[in-house]
Every structure is written in C-alpha cells, then in structure tokens.
Amino acid sequence: MNINLKHEIPLTLGEARPVKYEVRLKGELTEELVRELSELKGEPEWMLNLRLRALEWFHKLPMPKWVRGVEELDLSRLVLYSKPKGSLATEWGDVPPEIRRYYEALGIPEQEAKLLSGINATFGSESIYSKLRDSLRSKGVIMMPTEEAVRKYPELVRKYFGRVFPYTDHKFAALHTAFWSGGAFVYVPPNVRIDQPLEALFLIGSPLEGQFEHTLIIAGENSYLNFIEACAAPRYSGESFHDGMVEIYAHRGATVKFTTIQNWSKNVINFGNKRAILEEGARVDWMIGSLGSKVSYEYPMSVMKGAGSSSQAIMVSIAKGPYIKDGGAKMIHAAPNTKSRIVSKSISGDGGLTIYRGLIKVLRRAANSFAHAECDSLILDNSSQSFTYPHNQVDEPTSTVIHEATAGRLGEEQLFYLLSRGLSEAEAKSLAVMGFLDDLLIQLPFEYANILRSVIEVEFSRLGGVG
C-alpha cells in the first residue's frame, strides 16, 4: 500500500471548493450537546448513557501531567461534530466532488482497486465512503462505519466498545467517548485470513474542527488481519484537534498488524488513543509513523492477558520545526510466556522536541516472559531536543526486561560533506534521516517501508502539501 502523500492538498479553504455541511455542532461541552449528537445519529439508549458518563468524567478528571503545548486549545470554539451533505457512498462516483478531490489527490481510488480488501473514508466527523470486497463479505467479514455497526450489530459492538480502552483512563479518552463519531468497525470471523490490507482514511475537513473517530477491530480465533490507518489534514488558518481511538481485541491465536501513518498539518493537536487486548497465543503488531502536527501524543498499548501472546510496537516520529512529538509504547505482560518488543526512532530538527515515554509492566503471574525496548534519537541541530523516559515494572523474577537507548547529533562535518556533494540542506538532512532509519526500514514489509519513505520525503521537502 503506497498512499501518495506527495500530492498537494490545497493549503487553504480559499483555494479549495468549500465543502457543504448538513450539521455542525459547537459550543460548551454540556449534556445537551451530547444528547443532540446522539439523537442526530439515531443511537440506542446504552450508547447515549455511555456518552453521558464519559462527559461527566471529562469534567471531573484533571489535565494529565504529561500534557504540554495545548494551553491555548479552547474546545468550546471547535466544531465538535460536522456532517457533510450527502449519504454514505459505496462507489467513488457517488462521493460529492468537492470531497472526492481530496482523496483523489492522495491516490486512494487507484490504491483501492489494486491493493486493498476494503476501505472506510471519514471526512470530518462522518464516514462518507465504505466498501468491502464481496469475497470477504461472503466469509462473514464485517467492515463498516462504526456508527452503522452500533445500529446493525448492537450486541456485538456493546460487548467490546469502551472495554479495551475505558474512558476513565485520562481526560482526553473521556472527551473522545463523549463526542466520538466516524471510524471503522471490523469483525473477522475465526479462521479467516485477510492478506490484502483493509484501510481507514481520516481527513480533517475544515479549520477549528474536532475529529473523534472510533475504530473497533475484533479478530476471531486464529484469524489474520492487516489494517492501515492514514491521517491527513490540509493547512488551514486556526487550530484543529484530533482525538481518535483504536480498540483491538485479538482472540486466541489471532494476528493483527496495525499500521498508522499520520501526516497532519502543522496546526493540528493530536491525541492517538490506541490499545489492544490479546488472548492466548495472539499477536498484535503496531507500526506508527508520526509526522506533521503541532503537538502529538501517541502511546499504543498491548495487554497480553493470554499465555504465549506477543506484541511489537515500532514507532517513528519526526519533530521538524518548533513542534512536539511525545510518544512511546506500553506493554503489559499479564500471563506466562508472553513476549514484547518496542523500537522507537525519533528525529528532531529546526527546534523540534521529541519525547519517548514507555512502559513495560510484568505482573507477578507472567512467568518466563521477555520484553525488549530500544530507543534511538537523532538530533539534527543545536536548537532541537530529545528526551527519553522509560518506566519498567517487573514483579516476576523469572522474566527478563531489557532496555537500550542511544542519542546522537548530526555533526557539522557530516552535513558539510553532504552539502559539498551538491545536495541541498533539506536533501542532506533527509538522507541522514534515511540512514538513521535504515536498519529499521529493512525489517519492515515493503509496503510499510515505502509509505514511511514517502512521508519522510514530504516532511523534508519544500513543497507544501498535507504535512
């Protein structure tokens, strides 16, 4: 899968054709606003009650101590729910042209035809396009907008929704649950394998907008799923806020590979809430490529509650400019013979700040478990910074936890050498970054490595675009 993030999305609404909306909700975060949203979506009472409980917790919970750079965010000024005109489409030609042009700029129709098993596209707060191959549908696979699944499969959704990532976890998880809209629901029956990826694509469609999509993935016993999440936003005047959530439940023996490529514009504040629960013998692999955004917080977590389950998290984050990338991964070993691996690669330049926060927790009953964390930082200039805050809790003496960390700076001699070979400074730094990531990229499947290379080239180019 190779999303063409090199294509330029118009930088301002003035250069783009305005998108027409049926509904746009904003104002103080009150019970009345939540009820209005739930009524517009035709939700069952249990979902409304869940939203209201989450809103109550949002107002009670303090601001997390690890949050910085969001002081000026005024949620009451944001559009918390926006519904574009038109109904959910199952063919590209039925998507309104003023919306379709954004996805066409990213090369989505061509990629869907060639490489994808299914796709769900969210613009603003609503899914505007959803399609699944008939061959998968005949095997019992479900992929649809999450709000549609709430109505069509209420018992299945209710069993898992908010159970993997509870709203009580932190203030912005509660905010998400109160105002969630859009996202993809995926159910893979037992013993079904999906080799070609499913994809969810999220675009923020206007300035001063909040996006709260919710993706819920349920992998049945011994199933296999490859899922790609792509996030982008044009550059608008005024800040936007992304507070999405991903919940994965991997049943016994299931494998889920989840890839996120984020190339937000520089005025987006991003919270990526991602968590998985793994039963016996299950495996969940996270691959997170975090670029763009003004401030970004991303900590995928795997809870290995079944014996012999395993998880890997590969994180690549770039803070280029006076921006903050705060991320890491969390691995909870709650059963015997579980394994985890964290690889974090961060690059900071032009005054950027990267922060790694990781957690490895091995519970007393997780005998003979193994965890390995590796954090490498590259600092491109004297005005940039990088910090690492690992946290390991090991309560099981038969288990092994290893943590490695390195930090290096791009030297003036290295930069001078590259410039003397005819490269521009941006090209030289891009080449240095690729060299820093080389040992990681060769370990990734080709399509993952190709996506990362593309968005890194965008980040260090002088061409504008989505990032």
* Number of individual domains: 1
Strand content: 35-45%
Number of helices: 11
Percent helix, as a range, is 10-25%
What is Rg? 21 Å
Largest sheet: 10 strands, mixed
Query: Given the C-alpha coordinates, what overall shape results?
Result: globular
If strands are numbered along the chain, what order do they take across the biggest sheet? 4-3-7-10-12-14-17-20-22-24
Distance between the termini: 19 Å
Which whole number gives the mean pLDDT?
84
* Number of distinct beta strands: 24
Low-confidence stretches: 1-17, 462-467
By secondary-structure content and strand pairing, the structural class works out as alpha/beta
Topology:
Blueprint: E1 21-26, H1 31-40, H2 45-60, E2 79-84, H3 97-105, H4 108-115, E3 118-123, E4 126-132, H5 134-137, E5 142-145, H6 146-152, H7 154-160, H8 171-179, E6 184-188, E7 198-203, E8 210-211, E9 214-219, E10 224-232, E11 240-250, E12 255-264, E13 268-278, E14 283-292, E15 295-298, E16 301-304, E17 310-320, E18 324-327, E19 330-333, E20 339-349, E21 353-362, E22 370-379, E23 385-394, E24 400-409, H9 412-420, H10 425-441, H11 446-459
Parallel strand pairs: 3-7, 6-9, 7-10, 8-11, 9-11, 10-12, 11-13, 12-14, 13-15, 13-16, 14-17, 15-18, 16-19, 17-20, 18-21, 19-21, 20-22, 21-23, 22-24
Antiparallel strand pairs: 1-2, 3-4, 5-6
Helix pairs in contact: 1-2, 2-8, 6-7, 10-11
